[in-house]
Amino acid sequence: MRAAEDRDPAGLGTARAIGFVAPALLLVGLFLVFPALWTLYIGITDYQLTGPAAAEPSVVGLDNFATALDDPLFANSLWLTALFVLGSAVVGQNVLGFALAWLLRRVRPALRRTVEGFVLLAWILPGPVVAYLWFAVLSRDGGTLGLLLGRPETAWLVEYPMVSLIVFNIWRGTAFSLLLYTSALAAVPPSHLETARLAGAGGWQTVRDVVFPHIRGHVLTNTLLISLWTANDFTPFLLTAGGPNHESEVLPVLIYRQALESGQLGYASAMSLLLLFGNLVVALVYLRLLRRRA
Amino acid sequence: MAGVEITGVSTVYPNGVRAVDALDLRVVDGELFALLGPSGCGKTTLLRTIAGLEVPAAGTVTIGSRDVTRLPPGRRGVAMVFQDYALFPHMTVAENIAYPLRVRRAPKARQREAASEVADGLSLSGLLDRRPGQLSGGQQQRAALGRAVAAGADVLLLDEPLSNLDARLRLEARTFLKRLQHDLALTTVFVTHDQAEALALADRIAVMESGRIRQLGTPREVFQRPADTFVANFIGSTPMNLVEATARDGHVECAGARLPGPPGLVDGTPLVVGVRPEYLAPADDGITGVVSTVENLGVSSLVTLDCPDGTPISLTVPEQHEPALGRTLTVNAAPGRLLFYDAEDGGLLDG
């Protein structure tokens, strides 16, 4: 009796249980598993958007991958993506999110909630909307930043495309780190912080000796998540479309342009698989670091 | 080495609670001082105010001859052991003990040396490379004490130092703490809600209630002559008998008996008679009642008598002298052990 309950706690029976999860499985299969497998398949073909190869793609094996690894545009994108992830996620969002969480800890709740509200707003607004806002801020013709700095004729997105993207992404994504670190800091025992204060530890010493060891797991998890999100982020396309002259062409933008502007669906699929592979490597490194902690 | 002087200190929380209320207190150099009271009486807030973790709304805190009221905790020359010990889990015992030196950027060798020196005095020498998670409760407490000692502070503050230990270990730790404090002769203030702990450890006790000190004195004074009915109720492992009485002809009438009373009271004045169960013994005349319960306390038993007017009176009797249930017993207090309290404000009357 007990054993039967353990195996079937809901008392549904196998058939009905499958019936309940079937719709979810169907949707997951249709929209996640199938496209992934499909990408895997067309990654080894010369499938194109138009022309003869669109009607009858032929399998070309690993040629697409070899071409990508040899392609200076791909290498350029890889470098820009690394720069984008390091600058805006690993350093930017992480440090700013933590600093805000640390500083907002002791301020009046009303002020804290106001700041958190504004930061969250940047996070929940849809990409095209914030891209348009930043377009207005960075525009050459009367953009807000140019007016503020007294340089109204500066085309920020053209002259400093990567810096603009990195600042934009820090602005947009810091909310997640702020929220995560706020809850992580709440878990640091007050008596530990006070022991450090009584020993005469300053702010930095307290963070290094007391806070960081407590929230190390949160830091790793946060860094992993925001790194992956940033590596796959497509919003840069809305701001610079990869330009000028490929100077801000991060991998998702390159893949999009190869697939839909050049029509090389097979080649673009191969590159997105390489991006997926890169993400996996990063995730494994983080998981290894997390396990070493335990 | 330094005493602590608190003058007119009030500490108010943002929600308006006045946890410490215009309080004056002087802790003498080298003294082991207890802040005792029920939870919510402000004793921990007072300790945190001395530490600098709470800023007083009024008054001054002086340590030695320095006014430290506006100094941050790290520059007051105080060290504190928290109730949960607050050992850093990622550091070894040695690193934990030497932490105050690390903050001051002392050389590594000096840190290690200080840690082993302190650990010697606390019987932690073999455990220096362990993590706090691998220590027993008592060892964790000693490691936390070690860190406080290594800080080289003038004043040691302990928040409920024994409450996280199990009953048997608590007695051991109590003896250890008393000896350690005596050896170091370090001015020490500790907070406890356990009156037995305060009586056993402290040189002097401040009994607190509602942010004020109700009585300040040695354990003997506080135990034998509680200054009011609140303290009388709070101190003692068996609660003191507090019986309503009336003054008449220089005597008091209570629980159907007539006892010698304080002089100079107008006939009919209501008052409260207090006497500890330990100071009552069977006698030829005194309070008479019927034995209703006998509770075994080990070497003695707590006997409760029901007096004719319904008042319960407790006394302790040595083992093997327990009276039978239902027997009528007459008891009286040892000379000078009857205390008289004002029925209105609960204050102790002289006499």
UniProtKB/TrEMBL annotation, chain A:
Entry-linked InterPro entries: MetI-like (IPR000515), MetI-like_sf (IPR035906)
All residue ranges annotated as the ABC transmembrane type-1 domain in the record: 79-286
Topology with respect to the bilayer: Multi-pass membrane protein
Record keywords, A-Z: Cell membrane, Membrane, Transmembrane, Transmembrane helix, Transport
Compartments, as annotated in UniProt: Cell membrane
Domain of life: Bacteria
Gene3D superfamilies in alphabetical order: MetI-like
Membrane-traversing stretches: 20-44, 78-103, 115-135, 265-287
GO terms (BP aspect): transmembrane transport
Cellular component terms per the entry's GO annotation: plasma membrane
Protein family membership: Belongs to the binding-protein-dependent transport system permease family.
Name this polypeptide is given: Carbohydrate ABC transporter membrane protein 1 (CUT1 family)
Automatic annotation (TrEMBL), chain B:
PANTHER family, alphabetized: GLUCOSE IMPORT ATP-BINDING PROTEIN GLCV (PTHR43875:SF4), MALTODEXTRIN IMPORT ATP-BINDING PROTEIN MSMX (PTHR43875)
Organism: Saccharothrix carnea
Coiled-coil ranges per UniProt: none
Domain (ABC transporter): residue spans on this chain: 4-235
Pfam families reported for this sequence: ABC_tran, TOBE_2
Gene3D superfamilies listed in its UniProt record: 2.40.50.100, Nucleic acid-binding proteins, P-loop containing nucleotide triphosphate hydrolases
SUPFAM superfamilies reported in the protein's UniProt record: MOP-like (SSF50331), P-loop containing nucleoside triphosphate hydrolases (SSF52540)
Cellular component, GO, one term: ATP-binding cassette (ABC) transporter complex, substrate-binding subunit-containing
Protein name per Swiss-Prot or TrEMBL: Carbohydrate ABC transporter ATP-binding protein (CUT1 family)
Swiss-Prot/TrEMBL keywords: ATP-binding, Cell membrane, Membrane, Nucleotide-binding, Transport
Gene Ontology MF, one: ATP hydrolysis activity
InterPro entries: AAA+_ATPase, ABC_transporter-like_ATP-bd, ABC_transporter-like_CS, ABC_transpr_FbpC, ABC_transpr_MalK/UgpC-like, Mo/tungstate-bd_C_term_dom, NA-bd_OB-fold, P-loop_NTPase
